[in-house]
Structures are given as C-alpha cells and as structure tokens.
Amino acid sequence: LASLSTTISTLSTSHGMARLCPDAVRVALLRFCLIPTFLTFLISFTDQSFSLITYDRQTLLGIRNQFSLPYVDTSPDNKPAFPAEILQPTDGTHEENKPKSRARKHRGRRAGIRNRLRSKANRPPLPSILLANVQSLVNKLDDLRARIAFQRDIRDCNVLCFTETWLSPSIPDHSITPAEHFSIARMDRTEESGKSKGGGVCFMTNNRWCEPRNITILSRACTPHQEHLSILCRPHFLPREFTAVIMTAVYIPPNVSTDIAISELQVVINKQQQRHPGAALIVLGDFNRAKLTRGLPEFKQHINFPTRGDNILDHCYTPFRDINK
Q1: Contact, 176 vs 184, CB < 8 A?
Q2: Where are the alpha helices (DSSP H) in the chain?
Q3: How far apart are CA 246 and CA 276, in angstroms?
C-alpha cells in the first residue's frame, strides 16, 4: 500500500494535479479491497446456511420412508441426523414429535323417519297434528304461545286441534291466535246443544303447510250428542294419491247416547267420502266412551296410549294403517 500510494503521488505531481494526502489514499484503497472480500464471504455463508435446511421432494420422501419405523440414533454426536420436525417415530420415544390427536367428526346425518319428517316439516305426506283437550283455550294461550316459540315440534306442527275450547262469539279470532303463521277455524257451542257453556272445537292450521285461501269449511254442527267441525285443506305439497286432506274435529260429551252421536258422524263422513273420493280423511277429537269403528269399521284408531288417567279418551281415526310415528 505504501509503494502504491507513493506511485500515485508521483503520477499526480508529474501530471500537474494537486498532491493527494497519503493517509487518504491508504483509506480509499483499504475500503476498495475489503468490499469485494466481504461480499464474497456473505455469498458463500448464505449458500452454506440455506443448504442446511433445503430438501427436494425425493429427499423428503426418502426421509419419511426411512423413519416410518422406530427411530434409531446412529450419529456419532448422539443427535438426530435430520431435523426433528420431519421425523415420524412410532415407538413413542420422542413425545414432542408425535402428531396431535384430532377429535373424530361424525359424518352424515341422523337417520329415521321422524328425523326425515322434521327436516321437511312443511312437506309431509300427511299432516302432523297436535290434539289436546284444553278445557278453556283462553287460559292456555300463554302456555301455547311459549311452546310455539321455544319447541320446534309444536312450532312446525301442521295442525293444532283443540276440544272443549269454551269459546263464545264475543271472543274474536285474533285474540286467540298463538302466532302469526297460524289461521283459525272454530265451532263454538251454541244453544242448539241445550247447554250455554263449555264444549267447542277449534283448528289452528299452519300457513306454511297450507295457506288460508286453500282451506274450506265443509260442515259444522252442535247437537246435544256431538259437536264437530270439518275442513278441507289443499296444502302446497301433497302425494299423488290424495287430492286434498279433510279433517274433522269431534267432541262427544260424557253421559250422552254414543250410538246417536256415532250415527250423526257417520252421515257426515259418508257425504265427505262421496263428494271427495280422492281425499285423505282424518277424524279426531275427544270421544269419551264412544268409538267411531262401530259405525265406520273401515277406519283405524291410531292412539294406543292413555290420554287421561288410564283411559284413552282422545281418538284419531283414518282409513290407513300404520301412519303414526
């Protein structure tokens, strides 16, 4: 560096240039020599550091196949020959390298007729019906509205049928409507029955199953022996076997002639069968001691459990077998 700086100083003097300071020349030459050396070292170190953690696909596959068996350490420094994150020991010697267990996810959906019907609550082959003897519907409105709000089976029920509603013409329909998506058809007790209080039947139809414009009242009557209300529904979805659904709510008071009550219902149902031969007939309500099969033996009773105490007083009749699930 000393000789090179002297030569540069002589050349600058001989060519008429300003004399340069020897120390400044040495610093400039030192910087010029160190920069290439540092760059060369940096490039070589970077290549070497990256080469330690770079693997191609075939190498990684070979490592996986090699260490799929229990790992045996054969390195001289008693360290794994490969990074721990790519080893797959199966003998449990390296707990930190074992894969975390995953919670098993159940695939598919629950099976069964009941669950399939719940998934298509508004498109059943035959309507789902809730039958109850309420003995004053006004007193049960709060409980009914709460159940519709929080119980899916009642909220999605197609038809609510109540007997002994104890309603009168002074009570409007909108005051007893449990929810906006239900429409009401009712038959209150009249003076023709010989009694002024009690009795009465009512249908609450789900508008999501059948719109109010597709509901027609076929017949209604209140006699000393029976009270009934028949409606014809043409829902959005109906099997090809049926042209409509005809439901008849019945209340037969106790201590009356059951034979007369059944004969009166028999006349009503026979007319419905003649006028609508393709309709599905459903007769339900509080029959007390009466049985519809005495007058109409082709109908089947589907309620086979006690509904009041040890007695089956509430009945549901259809001409079909094994339809209740």
Answers
A1: yes
A2: 2-14, 22-51, 57-66, 113-119, 141-150, 152-155, 258-275
A3: 9
Please give the C-alpha separations between residue 16 and each of 4, 25, 92, 173, 186, in angstroms, as whole numbers: 19, 18, 83, 119, 124
Report the pLDDT averaged over residues 36-59: 64
**Spatial separation of the C-alpha atoms in residues 176 and 173, rounded to whole Å:** 6
* Buried/exposed code over 37-58 (b: 16+ C-beta within 10 A; e: otherwise): eeeeeeeeeeeeeeeeeeeeee
Give the distance from CA 50 to its chain's centroid: 52
Identity of residue 60: L
Angle subtended at Cα 238 by Cα 237 and Cα 243, rounded to the nearest 5 degrees: 135
Residues counted in the chain: 325
Burial of 140 (0-12, 13-18, 19+ CB in 10 A): middle
CA 205, chain centre distance (Å): 23
Two structure tokens written together for 130: 């809730």
Name 235's Cβ contacts closer than 8 Å, sequence gap at least 6. Answer: 127, 158, 209, 210, 214, 245
CA separation, residue 220 to residues 159, 192, 248, 251 (Å)? 18, 12, 9, 12
> For 32-38, what is the mean pLDDT?
65
Query: DSSP for 138-207?
Result: GGGHHHHHHHHHH-HHHHT-SEEEEE-----TTS-GGGS--STTEEEEEE---GGGT-SSS--EEEEEET
* Mean pLDDT score, 250-271: 94
What pLDDT does residue 225 have? 93
pLDDT score recorded for residue 1? 47
Q: What is the pTM of this model?
A: 0.65
**What are the Cα distances from residue 43, in Å, to 31, 38, 46?**
19, 9, 5
Query: Nearest 5°: CA angle at 45, between 40 and 50?
Result: 135
